[in-house]
From TrEMBL:
Gene3D superfamilies: Homeodomain-like, Tetracycline Repressor, domain 2, Winged helix-like DNA-binding domain superfamily/Winged helix DNA-binding domain
Alphabetized UniProt keyword annotations: DNA-binding, Transcription, Transcription regulation
GO MF annotation terms: DNA-binding transcription factor activity; transcription cis-regulatory region binding
Name of the protein described by the UniProt record: DNA-binding transcriptional regulator YhcF, GntR family
GO biological process: negative regulation of DNA-templated transcription
Length: 293
């Protein structure tokens, strides 16, 4: 299998000292280009080396050669290091790639070492999410108007989902996570919506609608990453391949066909950042109209 061959080559370079401890390992994108394989295949090669404890993820550095403690211990291991390493794995490979054993391998420690600090993957994912939501910051003084304040919260959350695409995938809106840092965003959004003069039930409904718009668009961030990794096709490449099938499907639906025809002539890129902003404007305009604000 190709990913095994790639892993073997990197393993040899590490053994020969060409890639010493702490050296940066070629990225998934570089490996895919150098070996003519899909990014998913290259990612599997790095994941295999990670499971063997030969490489680990480092914040702002990418994947580097691990320097193991020969005793298999966990000197310098902390809960924060475990959580940050897990976040790095999820950012690069998706939440499904995160495991307690995989995190231990990336850190170059014994497989059971992280359990001294985290009870298991369920707790780890909650800690990851809380840490990620905690990266969002606000000015000391929030905008006084409800519209400007709500827009600020929305853009802050969108930036976090952009940075950590897996974050939007965790739970449905009907099962909110009990996270203090997520509640901090919620408090600011609720303080804006309260200015509309609504009762508690309506306030809750509006907050769900607000968060659902952001999460609903953000869900596609990781889905696009996964589609790119598994297929090796960019959005444009995929659309080009689907054009004949799409034309056949829309035959008989004149509005749909007319829209696609015009877009083909003028050019169109579906940009999720623009969709988010457009949806936010529509939501805020709707609230202003409904509540006379």
């Amino acid at each position: 299998m190709k990913y095994v061959a790639i892993a073997e080559e990197l393993r040899g370079r590490i053994a020969r000292g060409e890639l010493p401890a702490g050296a940066r390992v070629p990225s998934t994108r570089r490996l895919a280009a150098d070996h003519g394989v899909a990014m998913a295949t290259a990612a599997k090669a790095l994941a295999l080396l990670g499971q063997e404890g030969l490489v680990r993820a480092e914040p702002r550095s990418g994947t580097v050669v691990a320097g193991r403690d020969r005793r298999g211990g966990h000197r310098g291991l902390t809960r924060d290091r475990i959580v940050r390493t897990a976040i790095d794995i999820a950012d690069a490979e998706g939440l499904g790639a995160v495991s307690m054993r995989g995190v231990a391998a990336r850190l170059g420690v014994a497989a059971m070492a992280p359990y001294k600090y985290v009870t298991g993957k369920d707790e780890l994912v909650l800690l990851m999410a809380d840490a990620a939501y905690g990266e969002g910051t606000y000015p000391a003084q929030l905008p006084p108007g409800w519209r400007e304040r709500l827009l600020l919260v929305g853009r802050t959350l969108w930036a976090l989902f952009r940075r950590h695409p897996w974050l939007a995938q965790l739970t449905p809106i009907t099962r909110p996570l009990p996270l203090r840092n997520l509640a901090a965003h919620g408090e600011r959004a609720l303080s804006a919506l309260t200015q509309l003069g609504v009762d508690a039930a309506t306030l809750c409904d509006l907050h769900v609608v607000f968060f659902s718009h952001i999460q609903g668009v953000a869900i596609h961030l990781e889905r696009e990453q996964s589609a790119l990794a598994s297929s090796g096709l960019s959005e444009d490449d995929w659309m080009d391949r689907q054009a004949p099938a799409m034309a056949a499907v829309t035959s008989g639906y004149p509005t749909f066909a007319r829209m696609l025809g015009e877009l083909a002539e003028t050019g169109y890129d579906l940009v999720l950042d623009d969709i988010f902003e457009s949806g936010m404007r529509a939501l805020l305009d709707g609230l202003a109209l409904r509540f006379g604000r």
